[in-house]
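Review form for a predicted model. The reviewer records the input and the model, then writes brief findings.
Reviewer: anonymous (R2)
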Amino acid sequence: MNSIRSFALLLVAAVIATPALAQDRRVPSSGAELRLSYAPIVQRVQPAVVNVYAAKTVQNRNPLLDDPMFRRFFGVPGQQPEQMQRSLGSGVMVDASGLVVTNNHVIEGADQVKVSLADKREFEAEIVLKDSRTDLAVLRLKDTKEKFATLDFANSDELLVGDVVLAIGNPFGVGQTVTHGIISALARTQVGITDYQFFIQTDAAINPGNSGGALVDMTGKLAGINTAIFSRSGGSQGIGFAIPANMVRVVVASAKGGGKAVKRPWLGARLQAVTPEIAETLGLKLPNGALVANVAPNSPAARAGLKLSDLIVAIEGQAIDDPNAFDYRFATRPLGGNAQIDVQRAGKTVKLTVPLETAPDTNRDEITLSARSPFQGAKVANISPAVADELHLDSQTEGVVVIDLEDGGTAASVGFQKGDIILAVNNQKIAKTSDLDKASKTASRLWRITVVRGGQQINVTLGG
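Model under review:
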């Protein structure tokens, strides 16, 4: 009897509960609600998203050609067969005159770049500016005087997790494609793609070929440039990363100003992350902020009064969680003014004013070494404050540093890396690039080289 009564009560409860659940759902009240769509946004922004095709010529070099005995079988070096390597990506028109922004890795090393518009017209393009630190590049369409459709920049600092976004690009070369999703996270700093680790994460499907394409908000503005995916299979796993529009804006402004390199503010201080152990030592509740580990004399940081062991906690009122966040916030500040930073010093908050100016770049003296030696194909420079800032070296470091390596060059094949500091060659001190150039032209059967890599001094011996 009790079981029957219990069943009856449950049945009544279920009947009563059903209308409440139904209130969460409703039939569309008009035909217009059935036609809700992202199509108006897509139609407005699609003409400004382009496909980018890059190609470079590579010689199929046979190593036996180094031996004169085999040359008559394989031909002289100038007659080696050539192969065309091609890459595919996307881009965004950011100026009506034909200025396109894309990823640097899409056009890196290219001999020829073409841009295909949404209406399938193709244009040759020249590379105006490349910035490996952000993985961005700016192109300009050749031989055209018409006005093109463009995208305006959104303020990426106003984006929120959960905002709906569209990703537009050319995945796998199938043609222009639109996917949608939300912003999954902001300020991702552990991605390891570029120097400025501050990415927008989205679950909008991004695949190979989307690189350089647009991440668009619901106002039809450019929220970011799609640049990478996290994937175990090579396809979309719902974790894509985009460079925020505010950083893209800085690179485009430098290109419009006619610069060959991006001009950014220079702090002149080395920062380190706050670990839980450091936070405990400093009496902090949370391991947040950027700890000052070194301040260069006469730098903007020094003139602002920044000191060793200061903890930077905010810039222009925006909280700083780690050094990557500070680097991004500082790098996107306009040159010529000042930035207000908050630091914790001896338990008190101190406000400092840092002038926004570029790092001195005197006596860089870049050269690419071509003599037959272990350094062949290495591009080296004297370490100016600007070079130190670019390569994250201590600003007081002196000497000659590797800033780039040619594909297939001897330097790359023997293991030199970007950022290596050359201290000595065959017991001769290397103080400037002319010293290394001279040393590389001296015939030697053995090469004894002293290098600093990641703060560690390494002595290597290579055959001539």
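Findings: The longest helix spans residues 2-22.
Further findings: The chain is about 20% helix and 35% strand.
Recommendation: see findings above.
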